[in-house]
Amino acid sequence: MHSTSKSQGSSGSSHSQVLSPGRADIHSHTHYSGFNKVFFVPFPESVTPPDKMVDAAVKKGLDVLCVTDHNEIEGAFRAQRYAIENRLPVDVVAGEEIRTADGEVIGLFLQECIPECLSAEETIDLIHDQGGLAVAPHPFSYRCHSLGTKIGELRLDGVEVLNGAHRDRYVNRLAENIASLTRMARTGGSDTHSPRMLGDTFTEFPGRSADDLYRAIKRSETTPGGKHAPLGDWILWSMEIAHGVGKRLIASFKEKELRSGLGSNSYSDDPLVRIDMMRRHNRVIAMGGCIVFLLTPLPLVCGVVGEVWIRREGYRKWEEFKP
């Protein structure tokens, strides 16, 4: 019916007798989540490979990790294989955060990638056709294309009412208000792009396995928990990106001749190859930007300015949609 890792070699039903709830992070990203641009320079949303995210899930005691990269599922499959091959005590669910014409939708327990830019209705149908589950992430986000009040009109299985990436006091409350009027499962996810914040926000469910999580979402037996990520972790994440990009740029200068000798397809499966493909003058500019960002108070300044902005935008959303 659906695809999960079976890293512990036991059936989902054997976990159902566990009295304490299991814990899953149903919204996480790896370096397969693509790029944004700072001015004209592409910067990745994450520099964390799937195996490192799985290791972090084990370290933090998660029972289930859902990898939900933007419009991509390869990172999730790699995370699954890594957990199974190394017999790690965590189940990995293949998911995808899909951009639709109406707002983002998370597909969980997927077999293959869902194409982007379809309507929300078409996207949800494709998820269900695979035996997967459809969840509305951050439905009232002010920085992501989100479904808003449309969540009440769709055949969703769950709605994310606690998103760890939204630090304001408003958008999660709006999601909770809408979800309370429906029979959809209420979920929590960190929306992290770094191992540092993985599991800060989570979904509790009866059982321990991915199969148990699947049933709990279908039956609306989930409970969101945890908290949003602290500002300090967001500042450190921005520095992690700058450090990862800078390290990659240095390596690209050294390896340019080797890559050209091996052929253009040698790095085709590397999601960060776009950094290597930048023109030389753009690489120099990007390298300078990384150095300035890491060696000045700029991360702190950006973090404080960003905090003011998200509080203001969150309040605007509240005023727009409050009951």
Notes on the structure:
- With 323 residues, the protein is an alpha/beta fold.
- The protein folds into two domains: 12-229, TIM Barrel (Alpha-Beta Barrel); 232-317.
- 39% of the residues lie in helices and 18% in strands.
- It has nine helices and eleven strands.
- It has helices spanning 50-59, 74-85, 120-129, 171-179, 210-218, 231-262, 273-276, 280-295, 298-321, and strands at 22-28, 35-38, 41-44, 64-67, 91-99, 104-108, 133-136, 158-163, 185-189, 201-205, 223-226.
- The strands form two sheets. It has a nine-stranded mixed beta sheet with strand order 9-8-7-6-5-4-1-10-11. It has a two-stranded antiparallel sheet with strand order 2-3.
- Strand 8, helix 4 and strand 9 form a beta-alpha-beta unit.
- Mean pLDDT is 90; it is low at 7-16 and 260-267.
